[in-house]
């Protein structure tokens, strides 16, 4: 049976729940730190999890946009490769963080942002986007299933949501097992779709200044690459969720990053370039109609590909959304959170199925603007800050760390990118004035967020709440030394040097001070109802 969040116990020595690599057992962990005894699997599993998730027909449609941007085929190919490469490398790095720390990506963000500072980005970026993308995927899969068996869409949507809910409840091991199978099945189906579509119609794009979306060669190149980068940016807050059970060794961490990057890069490059070659062979923006146009008599296996790809994506959308709900501090079991995400996604899919889901998908793409500075803060906190130190894992479960400067960095990074936003729903004033620059908002938000983090990381805590009433960072009387939170909840005194022999997270060094080593820091638990 899975458990509700266990608060600071998530960073303390966990009891052995015997999960290991058992596929048929419901995953017993949620946002908890994964203890050494439960670490299992191979780094190559990251290739299958992301290769299967990337086999997605809408990626091919992204390649179609090369024609409307007026790009030549060679320029389109290099733009797709560049966007896919940048996003894939970022995914690999974030996956390595999960191997090393053994906690979900969203929980890692509590370190630089604080408990309250992390609520808004998790609620919007992860929960909202998780529900939204799950709904879009149910719509595509439901329409494909309806086309195959001739039943109403709502019936297909309910069936898909129920199956995806069941797998997500079983959790990590079941998802990895099925993603490996789907990798081979979907590879064969999408290879067939690619061959058939290319045989039925392809074109060699030429640079076209008269194209509807032409903004210049450089601007179009940056924008097309940004489309593929944005697809992976949406996955970045979930990368560690699927690597956190792997053995936390340097070699496994390195290999997991490489396999993650490879799985993402290969699928995006393959389907994106295929889409660019096929650009102009169909006028439909609806994926189902477009695929029928491209495959003709081979539409049945093409519909099957879309149907099965809805599973490979939604296993991750639903599972990640459930982890996000727990990260918000809700006292709910992971299985309950999975159910809530699935029910919400089903409701949205039934509401949005009749002609408006394309606009809804554009709206969801706006989340990438918020994710770029969020990822910048996480990466800076890990590589330039203290987060690589596993002895500081208890900080992630400390609600007393209300607000940290990383939250300011995220807000400033997001706001700085707004003038550069270039979307059909909203276009910033700089983007309107300089369309020839293309879609640069992701890079602006990331750079500013990273810079603000680096400038503020040495400042005293922004807002810490102490059970004893003493503000974090306050100075103790001369000769007094602060207590160090012990995993059991008791305290052990530091010696005069400030060192502690407190045992820390499973497989990690001693916990040290849960609040940056500053005096007056006491651990506030993250238990349900606290």
UniProtKB/TrEMBL annotation:
Protein name listed in UniProt: Cytosine permease
Family: Belongs to the purine-cytosine permease (2.A.39) family.
Alphabetic keyword roster: Membrane, Transmembrane, Transmembrane helix, Transport
Annotated compartments: Membrane
Regions that span the bilayer: 47-69, 75-94, 115-141, 147-170, 177-198, 218-238, 258-278, 298-316, 337-357, 363-382, 402-420, 440-456
The UniProt record lists the keyword Transmembrane helix: yes
Region (Disordered): 470-530
One matching Pfam family: Transp_cyt_pur
Principal place of residence: membrane
Topology in the lipid bilayer: Multi-pass membrane protein
């Amino acid at each position: 049976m899975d458990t509700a969040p266990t608060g600071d116990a998530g960073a303390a020595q966990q009891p052995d729940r015997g999960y290991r690599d058992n596929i048929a057992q419901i995953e017993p962990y949620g946002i908890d730190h994964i203890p050494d005894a439960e670490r299992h699997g191979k780094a190559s599993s990251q290739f299958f999890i992301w290769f299967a998730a990337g086999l997605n027909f809408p990626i091919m449609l992204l390649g179609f946009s090369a024609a409307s941007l007026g790009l030549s085929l060679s320029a389109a190919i290099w733009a797709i490769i560049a966007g896919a490469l940048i996003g894939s490398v970022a995914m690999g790095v974030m996956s390595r963080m999960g191997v090393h720390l053994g906690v979900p990506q969203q929980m890692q963000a509590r370190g630089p942002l604080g408990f309250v500072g992390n609520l808004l980005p998790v609620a919007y970026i992860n929960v909202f986007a998780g529900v939204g993308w799950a709904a879009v995927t149910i719509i595509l899969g439901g329409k494909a299933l309806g086309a195959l068996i001739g039943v109403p869409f709502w019936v297909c949507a309910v069936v898909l949501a129920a199956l995806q809910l069941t797998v997500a409840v079983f959790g990590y091991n079941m998802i990895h097992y099925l993603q490996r199978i789907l990798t081979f099945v979907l590879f064969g189906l999408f290879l067939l779709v690619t061959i058939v579509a290319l045989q039925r119609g392809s074109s060699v794009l030429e640079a076209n200044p008269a194209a509807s979306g032409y903004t210049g060669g450089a601007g179009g190149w940056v924008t097309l690459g940004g489309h593929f980068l944005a697809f992976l940016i949406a996955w970045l807050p979930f990368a560690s969720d699927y690597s956190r059970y792997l053995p936390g060794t340097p070699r496994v961490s390195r290999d997991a990053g490489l396999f993650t990057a490879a799985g993402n890069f290969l699928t995006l490059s393959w389907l994106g370039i295929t889409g660019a070659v096929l650009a102009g062979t169909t006028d439909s923006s609806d994926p189902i109609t477009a695929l029928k146009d491209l495959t003709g008599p081979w539409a049945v296996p093409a519909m099957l590909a879309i149907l099965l790809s809805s599973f490979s994506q939604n296993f991750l959308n639903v599972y990640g959304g459930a982890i996000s709900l727990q990260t918000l501090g809700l006292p709910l079991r992971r299985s309950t959170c999975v159910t809530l995400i699935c029910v919400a996604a089903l409701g949205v899919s039934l509401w949005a199925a009749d002609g408006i889901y394309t606009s809804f998908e554009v709206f969801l793409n706006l989340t990438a603007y918020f994710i770029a500075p969020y990822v910048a803060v996480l990466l800076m906190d890990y590589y330039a800050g203290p987060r690589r130190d596993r002895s500081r894992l208890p900080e992630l479960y400390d609600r007393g760390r209300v607000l940290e400067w990383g939250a300011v960095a995220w807000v400033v990074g997001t706001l700085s990118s707004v003038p550069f936003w270039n979307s059909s729903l909203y276009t910033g004033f700089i983007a309107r004035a300089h369309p020839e620059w293309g879609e640069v908002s992701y890079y602006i938000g990331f750079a500013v967020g990273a810079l603000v983090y680096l400038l503020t990381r040495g400042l005293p805590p922004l807002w810490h709440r102490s059970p004893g009433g003493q503000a974090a960072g306050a100075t103790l009387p001369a000769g007094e030394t602060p207590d160090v939170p012990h995993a059991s909840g008791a305290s052990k005194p530091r010696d005069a040097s400030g060192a502690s022999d407190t045992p820390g997270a499973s497989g990690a060094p001693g916990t040290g001070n849960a609040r940056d080593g500053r005096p007056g820091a006491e651990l506030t638990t993250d238990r349900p109802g606290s």
